[in-house]
Design brief:
Elements: H1 2-29, H2 34-44, H3 50-63, H4 80-103, E1 107-108, E2 111-112, H5 114-125, H6 131-158, H7 164-194, H8 203-230, H9 235-262, H10 265-268, H11 274-278, H12 283-291, H13 294-303, H14 311-323, H15 326-346, H16 352-366
Antiparallel strand pairs: 1-2
Helix pairs in contact: 1-2, 1-3, 1-4, 3-4, 3-8, 3-16, 4-6, 4-8, 5-6, 7-8, 8-9, 9-15, 12-15, 15-16
């Protein structure tokens, strides 16, 4: 994945260049906006860049040009796929800022979440009013700012696309992705609260719907399709990218669900059992509820979503979920979805080089520890 690794560096440089231009606008308004600049850079400085990589390989799978960002003029900003990949990272940062706010999460990647950073700024500065209110309001605005910037950066890339039909197709997928992930986020918070009055027989279906629209499409399928569309993909090529991307995206989120309950905080950057405290009604929880005895299920329902869960209670819930066989079933689902995704690649009308790299990426996103 050498080219992919070099692309990550190029995406980072593109983001830095874009932010530098927006920073000058913020400074021209007021030095009081410096925290918006600093915190936006902070949230865009790290991460695995999976969305950027899938966007690039979606493009390469159709273009088949062996693009190397560090050869010839490949590092210049006019490459639409680089701007599109970078825009996806800005969109992702915006989503994380808002997601942490919705979930009331204290940390992100081992550091304070955006609203906590603004809370600390307020408290340390001795300003009037409550720090929590200032933190929440400021984080909403930071997320909105990043969301708007992602659109600007995406359009900069589209302006350089000679094939206007391809540009329109990529833009249509980007807009659809925004609608789907916002809808998925709403469905997620709905499940945390409405599960009590929903039929037990529907809990898996409802959990899968959240997986598909909050994560699977936005994390993998849409970046692939956006990249492919930029390269002028045919209907068959787009269908192959979707056929690969959706099951892989489901496997990706199922892995995330396991990490949200059992992940090592030193690796994930999140407290152990964070999804338990947040009350996430994931597929893992749906399966566990089916397998547990009436008493165990009642205890799980009682404790799930308690933000004050202690370490002993978290460990008890982890054991309960693991001992009932829910973890093994989710692992099997991950394996099945990975197999379905990779099977699509075997005879897909995509470049052989890209198919090999996508196969490697598929293993990386489903076997990760954070």
């Amino acid at each position: 994945m050498a080219r992919g690794s070099r692309l990550v560096d190029l995406v980072h440089a593109r983001i830095e260049d874009f932010l530098a231009g927006r920073s000058s606008i913020l400074r021209s308004i007021s030095p009081d906006l410096d925290p918006l600049d600093a915190f936006s850079r902070r949230f865009l400085s790290g991460g695995k860049r999976f969305r950027a990589l899938f966007c690039y390989w979606g493009w390469e799978s159709v273009a088949g040009r062996g693009f190397d960002p560090f050869e010839s003029d490949g590092g210049r900003d006019h490459y639409p796929v680089v701007s599109a990949a970078s825009a996806l990272e800005l969109f992702h940062a915006a989503a994380l800022v808002h997601d942490d706010l919705i979930d009331n999460s204290d940390t992100r990647r081992g550091a304070p979440s955006a609203h906590r950073l603004f809370e600390s700024l307020h408290a340390d500065s001795g300003w009037a009013g409550g720090s929590a209110e200032f933190g929440r309001a400021s984080a909403i605005l930071l997320g909105d700012l990043l969301l708007g910037w992602s659109d600007e950066l995406f359009d900069e890339g589209l302006d350089a696309v000679a094939d206007r039909q391809a540009a329109r197709a990529a833009r249509a997928e980007f807009m659809r992705m925004r609608t789907e992930v916002t809808s998925g986020q709403y469905l997620d918070i709905l499940e945390e609260r409405a599960w009590l009055v929903q039929p037990e027989a529907e809990q898996r279906t409802r959990a899968e719907r959240v997986i598909v629209y909050k994560s699977a499409k936005y994390s993998i399928e849409s970046p692939l399709v956006i990249g492919g569309a930029l390269a002028g993909a045919s209907a068959a090529q787009l269908a192959a990218l979707r056929g690969f991307g959706l099951p892989l995206g489901i496997a990706y989120q199922l892995r995330d669900d396991l990490l949200g309950v059992f992940g090592d905080p030193e690796v994930t950057g999140k407290p152990s059992g964070d999804d338990l405290r947040e009350g996430k009604r994931t597929m893992l929880v749906a399966i566990a509820r089916e397998r547990l005895s009436t008493g165990q299920r009642r205890l799980l329902d009682e404790l799930l979503g308690d933000p004050d869960l202690g370490a002993d209670q978290v460990r008890m819930l982890q054991r309960t979920i693991a001992d009932c066989g829910a973890v093994e079933e989710v692992e099997a689902m991950i394996a099945d979805n990975l197999a379905s995704a990779t099977a699509v690649l075997e005879d897909a009308p995509l470049s052989r080089d890209a198919r090999a790299e996508l196969g490697s990426l598929a293993k990386a996103v489903t076997r990760r520890a954070s």
